[in-house]
Target: Bifunctional ligase/repressor BirA
Amino acid sequence: MTAKKNINLLIQLLADGQFYSGEWLGQQLGVTRTSISNYIKQAEALGLDIHSVKGKGYKLVAPIELLDEALIRSLSEQKAVDVFPVLDSTNQYLLDRLDQLTPGATCMAECQTAGRGRRGRQWVSPFGSHLYLSMYWQLEAGMGAAMGLSLVTGIATVNALESLGVDGVQLKWPNDIYVEGKKLAGILVEMSAQAAGPCQLVIGLGLNVKMPAAAAEGIDQPWTDLEQMGASGIGRNQLAARLIMAFAQSLSLYEQAGLEPFLTRWQALDAFINQPVNLIIGPKTISGIARGIDAQGALLVEQHGVIKPFIGGEISLRLAQA
Model:
Protein backbone atom coordinates (compact mmCIF):
# COMPACT_ATOMS: atom_id res chain seq x y z
CA MET A 1 0.00 0.00 0.00
CA THR A 2 1.04 3.61 -0.55
CA ALA A 3 1.99 5.82 2.39
CA LYS A 4 -1.28 7.80 2.05
CA LYS A 5 -3.38 4.64 2.26
CA ASN A 6 -1.36 3.43 5.23
CA ILE A 7 -1.87 6.74 7.04
CA ASN A 8 -5.62 6.57 6.38
CA LEU A 9 -5.76 3.01 7.70
CA LEU A 10 -3.71 4.02 10.74
CA ILE A 11 -6.20 6.79 11.51
CA GLN A 12 -9.10 4.35 11.17
CA LEU A 13 -7.41 2.02 13.67
CA LEU A 14 -6.85 4.86 16.15
CA ALA A 15 -10.28 6.49 15.69
CA ASP A 16 -11.80 4.81 18.78
CA GLY A 17 -9.41 6.64 21.10
CA GLN A 18 -7.87 3.47 22.57
CA PHE A 19 -4.16 2.67 23.00
CA TYR A 20 -2.51 0.47 20.37
CA SER A 21 1.12 -0.56 20.40
CA GLY A 22 3.43 0.35 17.56
CA GLU A 23 4.10 -3.36 17.07
CA TRP A 24 0.41 -4.20 16.70
CA LEU A 25 -0.21 -1.26 14.36
CA GLY A 26 2.74 -2.36 12.25
CA GLN A 27 1.32 -5.86 12.00
CA GLN A 28 -2.04 -4.52 10.81
CA LEU A 29 -0.42 -2.37 8.13
CA GLY A 30 2.36 -4.80 7.24
CA VAL A 31 5.10 -2.27 8.01
CA THR A 32 7.86 -1.76 10.58
CA ARG A 33 7.49 0.11 13.87
CA THR A 34 9.77 2.79 12.43
CA SER A 35 7.27 3.28 9.59
CA ILE A 36 4.46 3.54 12.13
CA SER A 37 6.38 6.29 13.94
CA ASN A 38 6.74 8.18 10.65
CA TYR A 39 3.05 7.74 9.83
CA ILE A 40 2.11 9.04 13.29
CA LYS A 41 4.09 12.23 12.61
CA GLN A 42 2.36 12.67 9.25
CA ALA A 43 -1.05 12.12 10.85
CA GLU A 44 -0.21 14.76 13.47
CA ALA A 45 0.71 17.16 10.66
CA LEU A 46 -2.88 16.82 9.40
CA GLY A 47 -4.16 18.20 12.70
CA LEU A 48 -4.70 15.03 14.74
CA ASP A 49 -3.75 15.12 18.41
CA ILE A 50 -2.05 11.77 19.12
CA HIS A 51 -0.80 10.73 22.56
CA SER A 52 2.22 8.43 22.88
CA VAL A 53 3.10 6.50 26.08
CA LYS A 54 6.09 4.21 26.34
CA GLY A 55 4.97 0.63 26.89
CA LYS A 56 1.36 1.37 25.87
CA GLY A 57 1.65 2.78 22.36
CA TYR A 58 -0.41 5.43 20.61
CA LYS A 59 -3.92 6.81 20.99
CA LEU A 60 -5.94 9.80 19.86
CA VAL A 61 -6.45 12.25 22.69
CA ALA A 62 -10.19 11.96 21.94
CA PRO A 63 -12.03 9.49 19.69
CA ILE A 64 -13.35 10.76 16.35
CA GLU A 65 -16.27 9.76 14.16
CA LEU A 66 -14.91 9.33 10.66
CA LEU A 67 -17.12 10.27 7.74
CA ASP A 68 -18.91 7.31 6.17
CA GLU A 69 -19.73 7.91 2.51
CA ALA A 70 -22.32 5.11 2.26
CA LEU A 71 -24.07 6.22 5.46
CA ILE A 72 -24.24 9.87 4.39
CA ARG A 73 -25.66 8.86 1.01
CA SER A 74 -28.30 6.76 2.71
CA LEU A 75 -29.29 9.35 5.32
CA SER A 76 -29.37 12.26 2.85
CA GLU A 77 -30.94 10.30 -0.04
CA GLN A 78 -28.29 11.92 -2.24
CA LYS A 79 -26.26 9.39 -4.19
CA ALA A 80 -23.74 11.86 -5.61
CA VAL A 81 -21.75 12.25 -2.37
CA ASP A 82 -17.99 11.69 -2.39
CA VAL A 83 -15.90 11.60 0.79
CA PHE A 84 -12.10 11.87 0.79
CA PRO A 85 -9.57 11.62 3.62
CA VAL A 86 -7.55 14.62 2.39
CA LEU A 87 -8.13 17.22 -0.34
CA ASP A 88 -6.56 20.57 -1.01
CA SER A 89 -10.06 22.11 -1.12
CA THR A 90 -13.53 20.57 -1.48
CA ASN A 91 -14.63 23.62 -3.47
CA GLN A 92 -11.69 23.27 -5.84
CA TYR A 93 -12.37 19.56 -6.32
CA LEU A 94 -15.85 20.35 -7.67
CA LEU A 95 -14.72 23.41 -9.65
CA ASP A 96 -12.26 21.19 -11.51
CA ARG A 97 -15.10 18.83 -12.51
CA LEU A 98 -18.01 21.13 -13.38
CA ASP A 99 -18.77 19.38 -16.68
CA GLN A 100 -19.18 16.04 -14.88
CA LEU A 101 -21.61 17.13 -12.17
CA THR A 102 -25.37 17.25 -11.64
CA PRO A 103 -27.07 19.69 -9.22
CA GLY A 104 -26.75 18.49 -5.66
CA ALA A 105 -23.46 16.66 -6.19
CA THR A 106 -21.53 16.95 -2.93
CA CYS A 107 -17.90 16.57 -1.94
CA MET A 108 -16.56 16.24 1.60
CA ALA A 109 -13.13 15.75 3.12
CA GLU A 110 -11.78 14.86 6.54
CA CYS A 111 -9.01 17.41 6.06
CA GLN A 112 -8.22 20.27 3.68
CA THR A 113 -4.63 21.28 3.03
CA ALA A 114 -5.60 24.49 1.22
CA GLY A 115 -9.05 25.29 2.57
CA ARG A 116 -10.10 28.83 1.81
CA GLY A 117 -12.65 31.31 3.05
CA ARG A 118 -14.01 34.55 1.71
CA ARG A 119 -11.58 37.20 0.42
CA GLY A 120 -8.77 34.66 0.02
CA ARG A 121 -8.41 33.84 3.71
CA GLN A 122 -7.24 30.43 4.87
CA TRP A 123 -9.84 28.14 6.46
CA VAL A 124 -8.25 26.09 9.24
CA SER A 125 -9.14 22.47 8.41
CA PRO A 126 -7.71 19.87 10.82
CA PHE A 127 -8.40 16.18 10.19
CA GLY A 128 -11.65 14.68 11.46
CA SER A 129 -12.53 17.67 13.62
CA HIS A 130 -15.08 19.67 11.64
CA LEU A 131 -17.19 19.45 8.49
CA TYR A 132 -15.85 20.61 5.12
CA LEU A 133 -18.62 20.27 2.57
CA SER A 134 -19.15 21.60 -0.94
CA MET A 135 -22.19 21.26 -3.18
CA TYR A 136 -22.61 21.90 -6.90
CA TRP A 137 -25.66 23.74 -8.23
CA GLN A 138 -26.68 25.34 -11.51
CA LEU A 139 -28.91 28.37 -11.96
CA GLU A 140 -30.48 28.65 -15.39
CA ALA A 141 -31.23 32.33 -14.80
CA GLY A 142 -27.51 33.17 -14.88
CA MET A 143 -25.08 35.15 -12.75
CA GLY A 144 -27.56 37.80 -11.67
CA ALA A 145 -29.66 35.18 -9.89
CA ALA A 146 -26.73 34.08 -7.73
CA MET A 147 -26.48 37.25 -5.64
CA GLY A 148 -28.39 35.91 -2.64
CA LEU A 149 -27.00 32.41 -2.66
CA SER A 150 -24.74 32.70 0.39
CA LEU A 151 -27.67 34.11 2.38
CA VAL A 152 -29.91 31.18 1.42
CA THR A 153 -27.16 28.69 2.24
CA GLY A 154 -26.69 30.33 5.64
CA ILE A 155 -30.39 29.91 6.38
CA ALA A 156 -30.22 26.28 5.24
CA THR A 157 -27.30 25.69 7.63
CA VAL A 158 -29.27 27.10 10.56
CA ASN A 159 -32.29 25.01 9.56
CA ALA A 160 -30.17 21.84 9.58
CA LEU A 161 -28.66 22.68 12.97
CA GLU A 162 -32.04 23.50 14.51
CA SER A 163 -33.46 20.21 13.22
CA LEU A 164 -30.82 18.52 15.40
CA GLY A 165 -31.63 20.61 18.47
CA VAL A 166 -28.92 23.28 18.12
CA ASP A 167 -30.39 26.66 19.06
CA GLY A 168 -29.06 30.20 19.33
CA VAL A 169 -27.43 30.27 15.87
CA GLN A 170 -27.46 33.57 13.95
CA LEU A 171 -26.31 34.86 10.58
CA LYS A 172 -23.89 37.62 9.69
CA TRP A 173 -24.16 39.14 6.22
CA PRO A 174 -23.18 37.83 3.78
CA ASN A 175 -21.71 34.42 4.60
CA ASP A 176 -21.02 33.72 8.28
CA ILE A 177 -22.82 31.68 10.93
CA TYR A 178 -22.44 33.09 14.44
CA VAL A 179 -23.24 32.12 18.01
CA GLU A 180 -23.04 34.84 20.68
CA GLY A 181 -20.68 36.91 18.56
CA LYS A 182 -18.36 34.01 17.74
CA LYS A 183 -17.95 32.35 14.35
CA LEU A 184 -19.30 28.80 14.10
CA ALA A 185 -19.16 28.39 10.31
CA GLY A 186 -18.43 30.16 7.06
CA ILE A 187 -19.75 29.89 3.52
CA LEU A 188 -17.85 30.43 0.28
CA VAL A 189 -19.75 30.57 -3.03
CA GLU A 190 -17.69 30.32 -6.21
CA MET A 191 -19.09 30.42 -9.71
CA SER A 192 -18.35 29.83 -13.35
CA ALA A 193 -20.59 31.61 -15.84
CA GLN A 194 -20.74 33.41 -19.14
CA ALA A 195 -22.48 36.74 -19.59
CA ALA A 196 -25.43 34.83 -21.03
CA GLY A 197 -26.43 31.32 -20.08
CA PRO A 198 -26.59 29.18 -16.94
CA CYS A 199 -24.45 29.90 -13.90
CA GLN A 200 -22.54 26.97 -12.42
CA LEU A 201 -21.95 27.28 -8.69
CA VAL A 202 -20.01 25.58 -5.96
CA ILE A 203 -21.20 26.34 -2.42
CA GLY A 204 -18.69 25.48 0.29
CA LEU A 205 -19.34 25.24 4.03
CA GLY A 206 -16.81 24.92 6.83
CA LEU A 207 -18.47 24.19 10.18
CA ASN A 208 -16.61 23.87 13.48
CA VAL A 209 -17.52 20.68 15.32
CA LYS A 210 -14.68 20.07 17.79
CA MET A 211 -11.67 22.37 17.50
CA PRO A 212 -8.29 20.85 18.44
CA ALA A 213 -6.22 23.10 20.70
CA ALA A 214 -3.31 23.25 18.23
CA ALA A 215 -5.59 24.32 15.36
CA ALA A 216 -7.22 27.03 17.48
CA GLU A 217 -3.89 28.81 17.81
CA GLY A 218 -3.98 29.65 14.10
CA ILE A 219 -7.34 31.47 14.21
CA ASP A 220 -7.30 35.26 14.53
CA GLN A 221 -10.98 35.92 15.36
CA PRO A 222 -13.50 34.83 18.02
CA TRP A 223 -14.77 31.32 17.24
CA THR A 224 -16.90 28.58 18.71
CA ASP A 225 -17.76 24.97 17.89
CA LEU A 226 -20.59 22.53 18.51
CA GLU A 227 -18.77 21.00 21.46
CA GLN A 228 -18.62 24.35 23.27
CA MET A 229 -22.34 24.77 22.55
CA GLY A 230 -23.11 21.48 24.31
CA ALA A 231 -23.97 19.71 21.06
CA SER A 232 -21.12 17.19 21.07
CA GLY A 233 -23.59 14.30 20.88
CA ILE A 234 -24.46 15.10 17.25
CA GLY A 235 -22.65 12.73 14.91
CA ARG A 236 -20.73 14.21 11.99
CA ASN A 237 -22.38 11.81 9.54
CA GLN A 238 -25.86 12.73 10.73
CA LEU A 239 -25.01 16.43 10.58
CA ALA A 240 -23.56 16.09 7.08
CA ALA A 241 -26.72 14.38 5.83
CA ARG A 242 -28.98 17.06 7.34
CA LEU A 243 -26.90 19.81 5.76
CA ILE A 244 -27.03 18.17 2.33
CA MET A 245 -30.82 17.84 2.53
CA ALA A 246 -31.28 21.40 3.80
CA PHE A 247 -29.01 22.79 1.07
CA ALA A 248 -30.85 20.97 -1.71
CA GLN A 249 -34.26 21.99 -0.39
CA SER A 250 -33.35 25.67 0.01
CA LEU A 251 -31.51 25.92 -3.31
CA SER A 252 -34.47 24.38 -5.14
CA LEU A 253 -36.83 26.92 -3.56
CA TYR A 254 -34.43 29.77 -4.32
CA GLU A 255 -34.21 28.69 -7.95
CA GLN A 256 -38.00 28.77 -8.23
CA ALA A 257 -38.90 31.83 -6.18
CA GLY A 258 -35.74 33.85 -5.55
CA LEU A 259 -34.91 35.42 -2.21
CA GLU A 260 -38.44 36.56 -1.31
CA PRO A 261 -39.45 33.41 0.68
CA PHE A 262 -36.30 33.73 2.80
CA LEU A 263 -36.45 37.42 3.79
CA THR A 264 -38.49 37.04 6.97
CA ARG A 265 -36.33 34.14 8.14
CA TRP A 266 -33.15 36.13 7.48
CA GLN A 267 -34.42 39.11 9.48
CA ALA A 268 -35.13 36.79 12.43
CA LEU A 269 -31.61 35.31 12.29
CA ASP A 270 -29.66 38.51 11.52
CA ALA A 271 -26.97 38.89 14.21
CA PHE A 272 -26.45 42.60 13.43
CA ILE A 273 -30.01 43.80 12.85
CA ASN A 274 -30.65 47.34 14.17
CA GLN A 275 -27.13 47.65 15.57
CA PRO A 276 -24.41 50.22 14.77
CA VAL A 277 -22.02 48.80 12.17
CA ASN A 278 -19.01 49.68 10.09
CA LEU A 279 -18.70 48.65 6.44
CA ILE A 280 -15.11 48.44 5.30
CA ILE A 281 -14.84 48.83 1.52
CA GLY A 282 -11.19 48.96 0.53
CA PRO A 283 -9.65 51.97 2.30
CA LYS A 284 -13.07 53.47 3.09
CA THR A 285 -15.20 52.90 6.20
CA ILE A 286 -18.95 53.59 6.18
CA SER A 287 -20.80 53.79 9.50
CA GLY A 288 -24.52 53.39 10.10
CA ILE A 289 -27.27 51.18 11.50
CA ALA A 290 -27.84 47.71 10.01
CA ARG A 291 -31.42 47.34 8.77
CA GLY A 292 -31.37 43.82 7.32
CA ILE A 293 -31.36 42.95 3.61
CA ASP A 294 -33.42 43.77 0.55
CA ALA A 295 -34.98 41.43 -2.02
CA GLN A 296 -31.70 41.26 -3.97
CA GLY A 297 -29.65 40.28 -0.91
CA ALA A 298 -28.01 43.69 -0.48
CA LEU A 299 -27.17 44.81 3.04
CA LEU A 300 -29.30 47.76 4.13
CA VAL A 301 -27.56 50.43 6.19
CA GLU A 302 -29.22 53.54 7.56
CA GLN A 303 -27.20 56.77 7.53
CA HIS A 304 -28.73 60.02 8.75
CA GLY A 305 -32.24 58.67 8.28
CA VAL A 306 -31.60 57.35 4.76
CA ILE A 307 -31.38 53.61 4.10
CA LYS A 308 -28.89 52.57 1.42
CA PRO A 309 -28.20 49.12 -0.08
CA PHE A 310 -24.67 47.73 -0.24
CA ILE A 311 -23.64 44.61 -2.11
CA GLY A 312 -20.37 43.15 -3.37
CA GLY A 313 -17.65 40.66 -2.62
CA GLU A 314 -15.16 43.09 -1.10
CA ILE A 315 -17.28 44.48 1.72
CA SER A 316 -16.42 43.60 5.32
CA LEU A 317 -19.16 44.08 7.90
CA ARG A 318 -18.31 44.67 11.57
CA LEU A 319 -20.10 45.84 14.65
CA ALA A 320 -19.16 49.39 15.56
CA GLN A 321 -17.17 49.65 18.76
CA ALA A 322 -19.15 51.09 21.65
Notes: Residues 3-60 form a domain with the Arc Repressor Mutant, subunit A fold (CATH 1.10.10.10). The CA atoms of residues 11 and 44 lie 10 Å apart. The chain has a mean pLDDT of 90. The chain has three domains: 3-60, 69-267, 272-319.
